[in-house]
Amino acid sequence: MARRRPYEQDTENHERWLISYADFITLLFAFFVVMYAVSVVNIGKYTVLSEALGDAFGGRGAANRTNTMVEVDTLPLSNILAHKRAEAAKRDRERLDLLAKKLDSILKPLVNSGKVRVTQTARGITLEINASVLFDEGDAALTPPAQETLRTVAGLLKDDTHGIEVEGFTDDTPIGNPAFASNWELSAVRATTVVRLFAASGVAEARLAAVGRGANRPVASNGDPVGRARNRRVAITILSGAGA
Predict the structure, then answer these.
(1) pLDDT for the residue 24
(2) How far apart (Å, rounded) are the C-alpha atoms in residues 198 and 194?
(3) Cα dihedral: 136, 141, 144, 149 (round 10)
(4) What is the pLDDT of residues 222-231, one digit of tens each?
(5) Which residues cross the membrane (predicted)?
(6) Which of 215, 233, 118, 219 is nearest to 166 (CA)?
(7) Domain chopping of the chain, boundaries
(8) DSSP assignment of 60-123, as one string?
(9) What contacts 159, CB < 8 A, 6 or more positions away?
(10) Whether pLDDT at 142 is above 80
(11) Nearest to residue 152, comparing CAs of 135, 129, 168, 132?
């Protein structure tokens, strides 16, 4: 076996680090390629989105297809909110229209006789009931037929979400009844009596309000019996917009 000469030594490889460095550079390059790929904006998708938003909300126009950079029109927040409010108001009107038709149908005999009026305004649906249908003269207790009628109305309203305001009205003849000091008290108690029946019939109390108007806001002249009879009434208003 040949013996190594005393002066021979292993030659050290000083370029071994280049292999690790090359691997690192390759990985770093691959990382940046991937990052660039995922960050590239799909111009076509932006164009489709811009056109869809413009058509749906009345934007100023679709993005210019000939441009390299896509300019997406900004829709002001106020326009979007106005659009949502308009849609909500439309749905509310449709609900109230259907409710008015149902009320008119179930009260048809009283409507035909002129004792009940169903009207619609921007404020909502108003069910105006002549006091003679609900109470005896000078009294605030509901008659049995009136209770049956109002329970039918309450059955239609209890699953709705709109607020309900019940207003009592009288004519201008001073009341000569020891139970009520004035027409204010009579009208207020009559309104409260209707509200209590609604609540007992399943209408949520938070939706109900009672108002006594007395002889104020007449709908006819108090100069004759016909007009005074018309002014003695209870108005039930299903308020638009609430809970819609």
Answers:
(1) 75
(2) 6
(3) 90
(4) 999 999 999 9
(5) 21-41
(6) 233
(7) 16-75, 84-239
(8) S----TT-SS--PPP--HHHHHHHHHHHHHHHHHHHHHHHHHHHHHHTHHHHHTTSEEEEEETT
(9) none
(10) yes
(11) 129
Q: Give pLDDT, residue 243.
A: 42
Answer yes or no: are the C-beta atoms of 169 and 217 closer than 8 Å: yes
Q: Is the pLDDT of residue 133 over 90?
A: yes
Q: What is the pLDDT of residue 51?
A: 64
List Cβ neighbours of 211 (8 Å cut-off, separation of 6 or more): 165, 166, 167, 168, 188, 191
**Which residues on neighbouring strands pair with residue 121, listed in sequence order?**
124
Structure pTM? 0.67
Predicted local distance difference test score (pLDDT) of residue 63: 45
Q: Average model confidence (pLDDT) for the chain?
A: 82
Between strands 208-214 and 164-169, the pairing is parallel
Of 116, 115, 225, 235, give the one whose Cα is nearest residue 172: 225
Question: End-to-end alpha-carbon separation of the chain, Å?
Answer: 104
Residues 6 or more apart whose CB falls under 8 angstroms from that of 134 comprise 142, 143, 146, 150, 190, 194, 234
